[in-house]
Amino acid sequence: MIIVLKPKTTKNDIESIISFLKQYNVSSDVSKGVDTTIIGLVGDTSSVNSEALQTNPHVERVMIVTEPFKKSNRKFHPQNSVIDVSGAKVGGKSLAVIAGPCSVESEEQICSIAHDVKASGATFLRGGAFKPRTSPYSFQGLEVQGLELLKKAKAQTGLPIVTEIMSPRFVEHFERDVDVIQIGARNMQNFDLLKEVGKTKKPILLKRGLSSTIEEWLMSAEYIMAGGNPNVILCERGIRTFETQTRNTLDISAIPVIKRLSHLPIIVDPSHATGISHLVEPLAKASIAAGADGVIIEVHNNPACAMCDGPQSITPAVFDQLMKKIAAYAAIDGRKV
Ligand code: PEP
Ligand code: MN
Questions:
Q1: Whose CA is nearest to atom 4 of ligand 1?
Q2: pLDDT tens track for 130-162
Q3: Which of 22, 193, 277, 288 gives a 20 to 30 Å CA spacing to 98?
Q4: Measuring from each residue's beta carbon to the nearest atom of ligand 1, which residues come in under 6 Å?
Q5: Could you give the C-alpha distances from 254 to 217, 233, 286, 298, in angstroms and in order?
Q6: CATH number for the 2-63 domain, one of 3.30.70.1140, 3.40.50.2000, 3.90.1150.10, 3.40.980.10?
Q7: pTM for this one?
Q8: One fold for both 2-63 and 83-332?
Q9: Alpha-carbon span 236 to 286, nearest angstrom
Q10: How far is Cα 337 from Cα 329, in angstroms, rounded to an integer?
């Protein structure tokens, strides 16, 4: 349920409405716009007397929200959310460009790639320390040692770290050591993990599940937000379809669909979406043109020898060219990298 207040309702009046709502055992989320304030009610709202609310002199109107996602719903929060990551912003007029290897392999590898992508204008460093591999015989990541190497690369370049968590038992560790906690596609519906990261205030990069609908994806965002963490960044990374030419099928339409349904920022991963390095550039450009708030791109200094996802990784030199191109696409609608 949403309560739209009349313009110029004072802080005291808002507080008295919120204290009136306490009797219904629902939580109230206040979203202040330039002239209008909205109170979003979450929980079992069936007992809320909407007619009584409608007669309150400060209430413009009361609306029932039929979608199951509430806190992530644009109706609850009409302005775009801008997520603050250690001072860097995701959402808003500047694109987030997250670049780096699929996996952290060595100090030399992660630090050299970090320097290269930083020089080209990347705003975040990615690198997997805990890898969700289809085969138990494949490289599983350097785990905690990988996190240490990411910290070294950050100390040298200043780039904030984005890296994937796979288990709730590492939440405290990630909270301390990384800037953005990534929830991978395979864990999008790992509800225990979502609840645990929801207890932190860390920005969460929530990838879309391999075969998840947009509504299921927003419900996963809702788990994190319901726990008290509003800092969710969505990431479209391709979905399973019947097509076999690409690793996944990038759902470009998810970008404007999400922008309509939700206030959360959305970025795109053209590397995992396609699985093929020469497709990264056209789909990165398409994503920005469709309104994505940024991209996450796999960059490796020697893709042929990468321990994971070499075929979709681009070199630092190709990334440098790509940055110039996406900056031009961003400029078309008044944005920049
Ligand atoms: C990754 O970013 O390295 C990754 C495993 O991505 P996804 O969860 O989208 O497959
Ligand atoms: Mn990868």
A1: 184
A2: 999 999 999 999 999 999 999 999 999 999 999
A3: 193
A4: 102, 128, 132, 184-186, 207, 237, 269, 272
A5: 11, 14, 12, 21
A6: 3.30.70.1140
A7: 0.96
A8: no
A9: 13
A10: 10
Dig out the tokens for 203 from the structure.
Answer: 């920005």
CATH of domain 83-332: 3.20.20.70
Q: What is the pLDDT of residues 210-235, one digit of tens each?
A: 999 999 999 999 999 999 999 999 99
Nearest CA to ligand 1 atom 6: 184
Q: For residues 270 and 294, is the Cβ–Cβ distance under 8 A?
A: no
Q: How far is the CA of 108 from the centre of ligand 2 (A)?
A: 19
How far apart, in whole angstroms, are the C-alpha atoms of residue 3 and residue 21? 11
Q: How far is the CA of 83 from the centre of ligand 1 (A)?
A: 21
In the prediction, which pLDDT does 218 show?
Answer: 98
Q: Dihedral sign, CA of 36, 41, 45, 49?
A: negative
**Strands 83-85 and 88-90, bridge-based pairing:** antiparallel
If you search the block for the tokens 């991209």, which residue do you land on? 295
Atom of ligand 1 nearest to the CA of 185: 8
